Amino acid sequence: MTAPKKLFVKTYGCQMNVYDSERMAEALGAKGYVTTDVVEDADMVLLNTCHIREKASEKLYSDLGRLRGLKAVKPGMKVGVAGCVAQAEGEEILRRSSVVDLVVGPQAYHRLPEMVEAEGRLVDTEFPVEDKFTLLPERKALRGPTAFLTVQEGCDKFCAFCVVPYTRGAEVSRPVARLLEEARGLVAQGVREITLLGQNVNAYHGEGPGGVWSLARLVREMADIPGLERLRYTTSHPNDMDEDLIAAHGEVPQLMPYLHLPVQSGSDRILKAMNRKHTADAYLRLIGRIRAARPDILLSSDFIVGFPGETDADFQATMDLIRTVGFGAAFSFKYSARPGTPAAEKTPVPGDIADARLQELQALITAQQRAAQEAMVGREVTVLYEKPGRLPGQMVGKSDHLHAVHVHDPEGRIGDLVRVSVSASSSNSLAAEVLLRNA
Ligand code: 5AD
Ligand code: SF4
What we know:
By secondary structure, this protein is an alpha/beta fold. It has 14 helices and 21 strands.
């Protein structure tokens, strides 16, 4: 028997890429590759890239620069570039970096095993008619208690700043039967929490028994899988939050009280320029309906500051919206012009102004995040243990509200769902004591 070949995968960007990296590693596993955390040991290096902001795509080229030295001493090592930069730049990557052997887009990676065995430098950024999911090997890696499951890909919204509709293509939903099969398979391997993924996940409209199913219907069906204790979904667009999905937050106990619902801006003028197709008030009313269904829900969002044309008044409208909603978490970004998007043609806000706004916004979000965490102190919550903590006898997991929780629990095992009492809040996590095992 020959020694297994080693694969090193680096994932940039979103959770969808985390999922894709896992599937690519499994696909190469069928060709005898085992994964390694040590890049120097690798026979193949796969960089699964992100194109959403300029900084994210630049990382690829700095990492490729670093790989040049390694490839000089290990000429047999293959280097593959996958993900959204691969999709957006294709051949250009081969021209810019001589270390790259393969470029494979997010819709073509089921062809990776053949590409690895072929001679020469190859590019595949097609959106093939065949569905990659039906051609990938079954998921059978040993895994922890939480998993991602891609249910929908691509986006038809065309927000003026965003490359996703170009790199991931039009919105496509996977059929219900395949998703239930994949979810049951994950649960059989010990998964107790699944996060349903999609660039625009709540626009899900997959073929199912009796016709087209919505995300709400899919969530309700998945909640009936025995052993599947928790469900989450991300990322959603406000305009696709239908009444049934809102109701599910009040009715499906497995659906966790956490919702990431990006608003991007609180100014109607900027929302219009962003092509978001909703107003700040419509967002606030939506939040009201969601909170009526699930009063303790923790809300998170994405914000962009310094979008072309953003004035101080526009920015203050965003700050007002944040104060009105009260978020438990949020991601915020300085606007980054992306080639090919409509907003890239417009005059940008000066960098120092955008930087100052970003700082101001992040300070407010951090304060809200801390307050939401501190409000948990003294409360009982359920934690799903994901890994041992740094201290002896300590376990770390997530609460229903997605707070990281440290628990002193020498009997604790990964995958336990434990009822705990929160005793303290620090900057990024909670501390808690065990109340009840096997909650
Ligand atoms: N510049 C800055 N932030 C962006 N995002 C998407 N495109 C851009 C861009 N060009 C942010 C949005 C989105 C998140 C995933 O990334 O806030 O919701
Ligand atoms: Fe990009 Fe999200 Fe807008 Fe789609 S809805 S274009 S993925 S920001």
